[in-house]
Amino acid sequence: QAQLIESGGGVVQIGGSLELSCAASGQTFRPYYMGWFRQVPGKEREFVATIGWKSGVTYYSDSVKGRFTISRDNAKNTLYLQITDPQPVDTGVYYCAMNRQPGSNIRSGNNYETWGQGTQVTVSS
Question: How far is the C-alpha of 78 from the C-alpha of 65, rounded, in Å?
Fold first, then answer.
């Protein structure tokens, strides 16, 4: 069973930058897509971005497009999210997740099977 561990969260100011990492381990780490989602209290989980592990094809939510960059290092089994031009609305707990089924809706968290514990990102105004 694969395990995902996020790191790199913290407080970042508007105009700053922050990079989140998600390290995967386990013998069953065979992702098709790896994605980032975020959540704040009182709101539903929100899709942020996802990337095809082999293809490198990326998809972003409209709210972060042009500001966030998702990437991965296949050799290190690590997923990244580069946050630039952060805004207060970007505040939340960020989770990485693994999709292992080709053809699924890769923008929906319901189709991701394994999740990390989350890392807090706070954008100060």
Answer: 21
Dist CA 109 CA 112 (whole Å): 5
Sign of CA dihedral 45, 104, 28, 61: negative
Torsion of CA 105, 39, 36, 29, to 10 degrees: -80
Reading phi first (left if > 0) and then psi (alpha if -120 to 50, else beta), residue 77 is in left
pLDDT 10s digits, 79-98: 999 999 999 999 999 999 99
The answer to whether residues 31 and 53 touch, using CB atoms and an 8 Å cutoff, is yes
